[in-house]
Amino acid sequence: MFLGTHTPRLDDKGRLFLPAKFRERLSTGLVVTRGQERCLYVFPMDEFTKVTQQMQEAPTTNRAVRDYIRVFLSGASDEIPDKQGRVTIPAHLRQYAGLSRECTVIGTGSRVEVWDTEAWNDYLASTEQAYSEQSEEVIPGLM
Fold first, then answer.
1. Please, what's the b/e burial string for 39-76 (b: 16 or more CB within 10 A of its CB; e: otherwise)?
2. How many helices (H) and strands (E) does the chain have?
3. 6 forms bridges with which residues in the sheet?
4. pLDDT confidence of residue 133
5. What is the CATH number assigned to the segment(s) 5-133?
6. pTM score > 0.85 for this model?
7. How many CB atoms lie within 10 A of CB 19?
8. Which pLDDT score, from 0 to 100, does residue 129 have?
9. What's the mean per-residue pLDDT of the chain?
10. Which one of 22, 51, 90, 117 is most buried, by most CB atoms within 10 A?
11. Residues in contact with 10: Cβ distance below 8 Å, sequence separation at least 6, in sequence order
12. H-type helices in the chain, by residue range?
């Protein structure tokens, strides 16, 4: 399970140092793709396979399903981290997420999200109040 918030930097070649606690789970391969709210999703290869299998079960007669699958998969890039735990973030994905040198990497359970630090801080500031007020409405019976 991926947890926590980390603040690695992109190097000049577009490589990101994965947080040390995430490296073992991602060492055999990962997929990075467009996420929602202009972040990137990073999945271990086996988890990405599960997600795509679920997508394939959705009715492709529905245009919204087709659109979502196209955007999600067309941006996907399979990568293997190097020996130092760096992974290359392709240019089109860096541009999509507006990544600068300063990044924030968060664990969200089964995947990792990569955010431009300024965008993450703005997002967090805009959603923290709603988070504290909505637990029962969003996930009934959780807490």
1. bbbbbbeebbeebeeeeeeeeeeeeeeeeeeeebeebb
2. 5, 8
3. 105
4. 75
5. 3.40.1550.20
6. yes
7. 19
8. 82
9. 93
10. 22
11. 16, 89, 94, 99, 100, 101, 103
12. 20-26, 45-57, 63-74, 91-97, 117-138
